[in-house]
Structure formats: structure tokens, C-alpha cells
Amino acid sequence: MNNHTYEVAIIGGGVCGTALLYTLSNYTNIKSIVLIEKEADVASLNSHTNSNSQTLHFGDIETNYTLEKAKKVNAGATLVKNYLLTKDREKKIYTKYHKMVLGVGAEQANKLKERHQKFKQLFPDLRLIDKQEIAVKEPKILAGRKANEEIVALFTKEGYAVDFKLLAKSLLDNSSNSTDKDIKLLFDTKVQQITRADELYKIELGDRTIRAKVVMVAAGAHSLLFAKSLGYGLDYALLSVAGSFYFAPGLLKGKVYTVQRKKLPFAAVHGDPEVHNSAIARFGPTAKVLPMLERHNYTTICEYFQTAGLSLKAVLSFLKILSDPIIFKYIAINFIYDFPIIGKRLFIEEVKKIVPTIKLNDLTYAKGYGGVRPQIVNLNTQALEMGEAKIVGNKIIFNITPSPGASTCLQNALEDTEKLIGFLGDGYQFNRTQFLNDLSTQAATR
Ligand SMILES: Cc1cc2nc3c(=O)[nH]c(=O)nc-3n(C[C@H](O)[C@H](O)[C@H](O)COP(=O)(O)OP(=O)(O)OC[C@H]3O[C@@H](n4cnc5c(N)ncnc54)[C@H](O)[C@@H]3O)c2cc1C
After folding, report:
1. Which end of the chain has fewer CB within 10 Å, C or N?
2. By the 8 A CB rule, do 242 and 288 touch?
3. Dihedral (C-alpha) 445, 412, 368, 328: value to the nearest 10 degrees?
4. Distance of CA 206 to the CA centre of its chain
5. Which pTM value belongs to this model?
6. Nearest residue by C-alpha to atom 1 in ligand 1
7. Most informative mutation of 47, 264, 300 for ligand 1 (most atoms within 8 A of CB)
8. 119-163: per-residue pLDDT in tens?
9. Which of 10, 52, 192 should be mutated for ligand 1, with most atoms under 8 A from CB?
10. Strand, coil or helix: what is 301?
11. Which atom of ligand 1 is nearest to the CA of 372?
12. CA of 407: how far to CAs of 14, 402, 404, 443, 444, in Å?
């Protein structure tokens, strides 16, 4: 094992790392791959069942997505959907629910009407529905509202709640272990350091060192720290936005989103029935800025500050972002949502935007739930970058995956596989056509 040289090393066994292993092992002629995960199991952090909103985001009801962005996310989410339809016939990983985004008042209603016109070609199942139909689909949404309030919704029955941890397990189980391949899984193994020497990457694991020709760092927020240690991504820092949830039973039949707010990615509250229990809805996520790379793991505070760099440029960027009154007010109030007693009393006002008649007793703080969205701060523009960040270095890729990173895990795997094959050079091939055929709608409906 010592000094073993792999063709590819994947650092991080979340849904993205396992999607890449699945793709590399089944659709390329790469022979030796090592996946290194510091926890005892796959998907123990952001991809864990309890950490995220369990939504397969297609871009149809996410009103902060432009048409361009929605096209990309839709393509990625469709790969995951087709994977699930093909490999999870017993529906253990996902549950299908209807979903909608609610427009309340003339301004939001007009926004949704315009959006429908623009997006209906991309999403033929998306329908604009009126009050009467909303009342049938989700009776609790209309109870207690003013009779003359304008309300519409963009509705589709194509909603998927996904247990991304089980998806990661499935991707791992379906990775090829054919005898001509050397696929090594190292759990409970933390990568301490990555360095480059003699045209290879040296990966320090504490008790041993392994080598790899090319490396994929799929370690969520930790990816940026590794990038910086190798001189990449120096113009980035992270705003770690922790998300908490509140549970409420028996209120919703499907996923209900609200119109997203400008400047604030994924800030608007939504209600999502649990993937494995339709009787309980999860409302959230909140957005609490914390100086940590991992939720509930205080040992990552130090790593957070190492990632931020604490340079003048970083401090100025954070100050600029936080001096925006909309962002500041939002961050301040979200901080309080996690407080006992008062948090619930404030957060209920957000939930009332979906279920006006909800009572305090209906809400329970989901203790221990919620991960951290690593939002990218660009130190040059001093602004938040809303998408995912991929830093490509010399035969190494670093993925930092805020939401909807789980929905696009197979799309990322496809793009990263192409890059990694390119890094490896002559003689290496990726059977992209087979990958896309196996995850096509035809394959899923066979
Ligand atoms: C509140 C919230 C709600 C969200 N809702 C959604 C949603 O509804 N839909 C959606 O698509 N996305 C959602 N997301 C985003 C989604 O959860 C992430 O994009 C996705 O899980 C990222 O997967 P990943 O594999 O990149 O990272 P992770 O799941 O975080 O995996 C990274 C792995 O790297 C490992 N690692 C880190 N450092 C090391 C090291 N030094 N050595 C070895 N291993 C290491 C970690 O242990 C971890 O297992 C949400 C996120 C949050 C926080």
C-alpha cells in the first residue's frame, strides 16, 4: 500500500465523489482509482439525508435561475432522475411528489406568469395554476388568506425528493469492481496534505503516503483549502452559510417553494415532505453565516479562517458583502432562527408565507439537521458568486459545491471525467455515448 501510485485519486466520498467513481470505473479504461474519505461512510456531510433539502433541482420552480442556468441544471438533474428510475425501481432512494412555486400578490404573480411563458418550452410539464387548483393540490396553502389576494403557482407533478446519502451508496455499489480494475476505497482516512513532485501528486494520509497521476478534490468546502495549499483559487474565499430546518407534520402534500429573493441564493423558505415520510414536512433551510467548514464540527473553525486567508482583500470583500442592507438584515435575522424560544417565533412568519394558519405548536426545530453551503466570495469583484466553483489546476480539479451540487453530481462527474481523461493523455478513453445512453430517458422508461 505504501507508495502505491494510482491513476486517479478522488478525495471526498460525498455524492459528487461517488458519482465520479461510478463514472470513471464504468465508462473509462482507467484501471486504478482510489477514493479517500475521512468519515466512516459515504455522504456523511452535506450529502447526508439530514443535511440538505432533499430536492432534485431542475430549475423549473427555482425563480433565481435564468433560462440558461435552468437548461444546465435541468440536464444535470435529468441524469440523476434517469439514474434513479433505472437503478432504484423499488423507490428506496427517492419519492415522487408534486411541486410548485407560489406567487402571492400582483408582483409575484406577474413574475411567475412571465416566467411560465419563458420557461414552458424547456419544462413542458410546468403549468400555471390558479387559486382553485392550488386549493385542490395543497388545501393548507389557501386557508386563512385574504379573499382578494392574487395567488398563482407554477406547478408540476415532476418533483423528486432524494435521499442523497442513499444515492451516494448506490453510486458506490454500482461502481465497477471488475477484476481488471484496482478500485480502492479508504474510509476513516483523512487527507492531510497534497503536494506535487516528480510529475505525480503525493497524498499524505498521516500514517502513509500514496501517489496519483491526477487528482479530483471533491471535498466540499474543504476543496478550497486544498486548492490554496497548492497555489490555486487564491482569489476566492468562502462564506459558509449553514442551513437549519423546522419540522411540521401533516401540512403539505408536495414540495412548495416561494419566490426567491434577489441577491440571496436559495434564501426563500420552502416546505418539503421528507423523502421517507410524506407525513412530515421540512421547512427551511435558514441561512446562518458561521465561520466553519462543517456544520456541528467546531474543529473546522481554524480551517475556515485558513481558507478565508484573512488578507486585507478578504476582509474588505466580507465587509462589502455584509454592508449590503438586504444581505445584512437577512443574515442577522437568520442567525436568530436557531435560538431557542425566540427562533421559532420569528421563523413561523416565514412558514406562514406558505401555510398562513400554522401554529407555533406545529413547528419543531430539527436539531442536528442542516449542512453548510459553501458560497464563493470572489476577492477581486468583492461579491458573492452564486454558482458552483470548479478550479482546474495542473492535472488536478477542485470542486466546491454549494446547492444544487447534489442535483448536478452526475453532470459534474461527466465534465470532470472528460477533464481527467484529458490530463491522463494518450491511450485513455471515456465512453461518453454509453454513459449518456445508460442515463437517457429511453433507458429509464425501458
Ligand atoms: C441546507 C442545505 C440544503 C441543500 N439542499 C439541496 C437540495 O435540496 N438539492 C441539492 O441538489 N443540493 C442541496 N444542497 C447542496 C448539496 O447538499 C451539496 O451540493 C452536495 O451534497 C455536495 O456534495 P459533495 O460530495 O460535493 O460534498 P459533501 O457531501 O460535503 O462531501 C465531501 C466529502 O469530502 C470529505 N472530506 C473533506 N475533507 C476531507 C479530507 N481532508 N480527507 C478525506 N475526505 C475529506 C467529507 O468527509 C465529505 O464526505 C444543500 C446544501 C445545504 C447545506
Report:
1. C
2. yes
3. -120
4. 30
5. 0.97
6. 243
7. 47
8. 999 999 999 999 999 999 999 999 999 999 999 999 999 999 999
9. 52
10. helix
11. 53
12. 12, 11, 5, 19, 17
